[in-house]
Amino acid sequence: MPKNFKANITENILLNEHFRLLNLSPLSDIIVPEPGQFYMLRTGDTYDPLLKRPFSIFRHEDNTLKFLYRIRGKGTLSLSNLKSGDIIDVIGPLGNSYSAPEGDFIAIAGGIGIASLLPLLRRFKKRAYLFYGARNKDELIMLNEARSLSKEIFITTDDGSEGEKGLITDSLSDFLNPSRITHYALPIYACGPTPMLKELSKVVAEYPSSLLPLNKGRMGGVKCYVSLEEHMACGVGACLGCVVKTVSGYKRVCKEGPVFDIEEIVWE
Amino acid sequence: MGIEKPEDRSQKSVTPPNPPLGKGGHGGGNLSVNIASLKLKNPVMTASGTFGYGEEYSEFFDLNRLGAVVVKGLSITPRQGNPTPRIVETPAGMLNAIGLQNIGVRAFIKEKLPFLRQFRTPVIVNFFGDRIDEYIQAAEELSNADGVHAIEMNISCPNKQAGWIVFGTDPKIMEQVVTAVRKTTNLPLIVKLSPNVTDIGLMAKVAENSGADAVSLINTITGMVVDVKRRRPVLANNTGGLSGPAVRPIAVRMVWEVYKAVKIPIIGMGGIMNASDALEFLIAGARAVAVGTANFVNPTATIEIIEGMERFLKEEGLSDINEIIGSLKIGS
Q1: Chain B residues closer than 8 Å to A91 by CB
Q2: How far is it, in rounded angstroms, from Cα B9 to Cα B14?
Q3: What is the pLDDT at residue B165?
Q4: Interface touch A234/B296, C-beta < 8 Å
Q5: Are β-strands B240-243 and B266-269 bridged in parallel, bridged antiparallel, or unpaired?
Q6: Geometric angle at alpha carbon B189, from B71 and B10, rounded to 5°
Q7: d(C-alpha A208, C-alpha A226), whole Å
Q8: What ipTM describes this predicted complex?
Q9: C-alpha span between B191 and A180 (Å, rounded)
Q10: Over the stretch A103-125, which tens digit does the pLDDT of each residue have?
Q11: B44: helix, coil or strand?
């Protein structure tokens, strides 16, 4: 089945001041996406913006592909102007996916990063300790669904308008504290802004995956997977524009990623 | 130039795996063209650096349909490429500074060429070096590899031995490097011209006189995008190469100038998005075209362009695409 297809926009609506939901009905058979995969969407039919834009799959149900997005630049602005009934060019599903957790797991979402993690939470219901951080209450999009799918939810906002005031990585750090010995070796899945992921890399560095859960008095054994975001031109591995620096050289976010083992990434 | 022209280039025997069918093909007029001794079933190829080593796009269409595959530029030793950000979108285009990241000639021959050999489509390998001897070495090894049908020299990179002057912007340096490579290969030699020069016709003439069998143009145009809040260039490399529809009129003009200056075939490229764009290049004098940035926007752009050319021939009542090559009318 070809990964490039045309889709009919069935809905492109405002959820609130910040977020929009795009529903696409493919005009041909498609490959079923896995949690963590993404699609390249053409955002209009002019040459400006020229390139397709990458979006994580937020939901796939009843042969509809759903994407959650916020207007951040020319591409998303152009996308927001498309109407129900418009036809757009799509490529996907692309990239790798989150590996399936064996038991309970930890999910960390920063802002719209929740869009990429919700398919994982839906597939493994009530197995996630979800850490969800955003700037403020309004930006905690899909909070109700996220709460209902999680085993336990921890919320932080920058302004304290919902949950704890502070960084979500600080909440995680408390949770991973060796005194709460049952949680330390759960796999972690994260998606969010780069500063959050960078901070997360410092938190999990305390619990290196190379150590057994309890080794010479140190905690370890934590596997952490992060979904990265980069500007992309092709999305299929050809242009080498979206690379990220890893311990074994540059890797393509669109092809070897978007999900990487956090220990592989060289944070700059 | 004082450069000997290689003798009788027509004697070189390079046969693509499956010669084109001549007239017919998809039931329309003839689309096949010759670039030196290379016979293409249609004039549409991929532009180097936009098509990897062919694997990525083979998921989207049958590579047998292409006139030729031009692979990502190779150097004798692997290159890790530039730091990020490497790309930024611009109005109707994009700026890239990938930094010639590649796996190296030897790994290409061993790991990637066997895949490409499965197809009945000629493989043109783009290559480059920092020094003349690196060009020579790359050309030699590629010429000995089974499944390479032509080589395309990227001369838009700086010369380490000559104060980092870009090979393709200095006629003397260009003459040296093209002449040296010409002596080492019997494959059709295509020289990819840089548009970052005052007189591209002159540079094409230098390539022709130094033994090139064809020229391809344009490479990307050097540009810069500034982040006004940070007051820094957006790209980590500061500058990058501009491509996409924004550059097309410049590319068409340059093809026309080169067509007037040289007799060797021209491969035209620069912002081709559809068949009509491609036809502009052919009419201006290109024998074939390469599709680059359009692959990113639409993975099947090349195929749609081939089909559009077939339709054009039919609509115009033409039997052969060669009839329109260089058919530009000037004046009354």
Answers
A1: 299
A2: 11
A3: 81
A4: yes
A5: unpaired
A6: 130
A7: 15
A8: 0.93
A9: 66
A10: 999 999 999 999 999 999 999 99
A11: strand
| Beta carbons of A50 and B293 less than 8 Å apart | yes
**Percentage of residues in chain B having pLDDT higher than 90:** 87
Q: In one letter, which amino acid is B190?
A: I
Å between A23 CA and nearest CA of chain B? 21
The distance from CA B258 to its chain's CA centroid, rounded to whole angstroms, is 15
> Is the Cβ pair A51, B94 closer than 8 Å?
yes
Q: Which CATH class is domain B9-82+96-222+242-323?
A: alpha beta
Q: Is A98 left (phi over 0), alpha (psi -120 to 50) or beta?
A: beta
The residue of chain B with its CA nearest to that of A232 is B87
Dist. CA A139–CA A70, nearest whole Å: 10
Which of B56, B86, B89 is closest, CB to CB, to A49?
Answer: B89
Compare all CA atoms of chain A with the CA of B301 and give the residue at the minimum distance.
Answer: A4
CB contact under 8 A, A234 and B89: no
Q: Which residues contact A90 (CB under 8 A, 6 or more apart)?
A: A4, A5, A6, A7, A24, A26, A39, A40, A41, A42, A65
Per-residue pLDDT, averaged over B3-8, amounts to 42
Q: Please tell me the predicted confidence (pLDDT) of residue B6.
A: 42
Degrees (nearest 5) of the Cα angle B97, B103, B104? 105
For testing the chain B interface, which of A50, A51, A88, A252 should be mutated: the one with the most B CBs within 10 Å? A50
- Least CA distance to B235: which residue of chain A? A241
Is there a contact between B101 and A233 if contact means CB atoms under 8 Å apart?
no
| Spatial separation of the C-alpha atoms in residues B265 and B69, rounded to whole Å | 17
What are the residue boundaries of the structural domains of chain A, listed by start? 4-94, 105-264
Sign of CA pseudo-dihedral B122, B87, B218, B135:
negative
Architecture of domain A105-264: 3-Layer(aba) Sandwich (3.40)
Between CA A248 and CA A236 the distance in angstroms is 20
- One-letter amino acid at B61 equals F
Q: What is the DSSP letter of A171?
A: H
- Whether residue A243 and residue B300 make contact (CB cut-off 8 A), yes or no, is no
Å between B239 CA and nearest CA of chain A: 14
Tens digits of residue pLDDT in A175-197: 887 666 556 678 999 999 999 99
Give the distance from residue B9's alpha carbon to the nearest chain A alpha carbon, in angstroms: 34
Which residues of B are identified as catalytic? 157
Class of domain A4-94: mainly beta
